[in-house]
Amino acid sequence: MSSCADDTEDLTTIPHIVFPDDHIWTEGAGAKWRFVKYGIWFTLRLQQLLLSDNTNTTISLLPNPAQMQNPHQLALPSMLGGMGIIQPYSPKPVLANRSPQWLRDQIDNGCYVRIDLELSPTSNAEVEQEALAAIRHSEKQGKKGRSKPVALFLTGPIDPMHWHGSAGAWTHQAFYDHRLARAERSGHGRTLPRPADTPKGRYVISVHIRRYETGDWNPPGSYYVAAVQSVFDYTPLTCDNSNVVVIGDKQSLVPDELLHEFECVTFESRDIIEPKTEPVSDPYAKDDYDPNDDDDNDARRGYIFRDLEVLGLSDVMVASNSEFSTMAQSLSHPDSIILCPPRRPGKWNYGLPCDQVGTPNSILTYPRLWGENAVPSNELLGVQEDHVEEKLREAWKNRGVDGPLWDQPGYGIVPFDYEKEVEASWPSIEELW
């Protein structure tokens, strides 16, 4: 590049940039979600602090497509566009229509000052102050006619997958705004197709099934049956006013058990292919999202985004013990009730239980089997009735909407509050894992 600005831009309009630079291993969509969230959080945090300076300083996030590559979709691996995070319609503070290579070219041409920041697993106050100092120095230089915007390259060991926080609230709006805009561009208005043809006036209870090749990672059908039955027992929902929409691996036997137990079950089967090769890291991964291709049919990407849409707007979601369910939980409507199982023993059994991650109305289904008392998932035969009864009754009583979520104006999607204070740090790695 021969200049520091595009033909249609003045350099002074280009903001300071946050770029999460860790090269990320390709894993499933849910697993990758934790790497994307910290860049969103750090940008929102800096943006809010800079606003307190009473200046016109702007800072934007340049998402890293390598952080959301899905090995289950080898032809179309990038997830950021379909999430509504990186595309021409991205919400602030995302820098739309720019690639990581564009930023590297800008730095090589002397248009940006690169600053490397390493996030901490405990407190990021010093990193935050270092970033602010660099930006403020750049702004002072600008008054002397020597300004260069700052590119903050983030690395570090933070894995905030389970923590909701500001990043989760921001992405809730970004994702559903994108889905509504996508429907509108397709000629359907800002209207989403109802789950499994659920008619207006009926509630949606979604069940997410994830089948692993390792057998003791899979909760049995009796667990999911008990979870759905508890919803019928302790809320006003019944098969007379609700549909149970089961979304999961077509090879799982669990949907058959649910179909046998409840007359209002619909099964949305999915073909989930486990990658057979070792994960790889691709620092040059690109985002392949094209709204002209993806406006009509979610099938091209295995219905991943449609599933997140349905799970997140369900009146009640019965989650699996998968990272995809965790992702859906983080995107969910604040009035959705989430029933989530305890984690299995081993490395996945560290950190905060799913009812303490900042997502409203999340209920751990078996607290007595948490932590050191954890059992293999295939031994999770039911739910802890006394606890689930108490929490379900409480969550339903505290619902902020009347009627099904799918009947709410605009589906009740909650706009992100840019005035609300962005948390100063994530829970520590020790808490999370």
Strand content: 5-15%
The helix count comes to 11
**Major β-sheet annotation:** 6 strands, parallel
Could you give the distance between the termini? 44 Å
Low-confidence stretches: 7-12
Structure class? alpha/beta
- The chain-level mean pLDDT equals 85
What value does the Rg take, in angstroms? 22 Å
3D shape: globular
N to C succession of SSEs? EHEHEHEHEHEHEHHEHEEHH
Can you list the strand order of the major beta sheet?
7-6-5-8-9-10
**Extended strand count:** 10
Descriptive report:
The chain has a 6-stranded parallel beta sheet with strand order 7-6-5-8-9-10, sandwiched between helices. The chain has a 4-stranded parallel beta sheet with strand order 2-1-4-3, sandwiched between helices. Helix 5 (221-234) runs parallel beside helix 6, helix 5 (221-234) crosses helix 10 and helix 8 (304-312) crosses helix 9. Mean pLDDT is 85; it is low at 7-12. The chain has 11 helices and 10 strands. The chain is an alpha/beta fold and 433 residues long.
Write the layout of secondary structure elements.
Blueprint: E1 16-20, H1 29-51, E2 59-61, H2 100-108, E3 113-118, H3 125-143, E4 150-155, H4 165-185, E5 203-209, H5 221-234, E6 242-249, H6 254-261, E7 265-270, H7 291-294, H8 304-312, E8 316-318, H9 323-331, E9 337-340, E10 362-364, H10 385-397, H11 429-432
Parallel strand pairs: 1-2, 1-4, 3-4, 5-6, 5-8, 6-7, 8-9, 9-10
Helix pairs in contact: 1-4, 1-9, 5-6, 5-10, 8-9
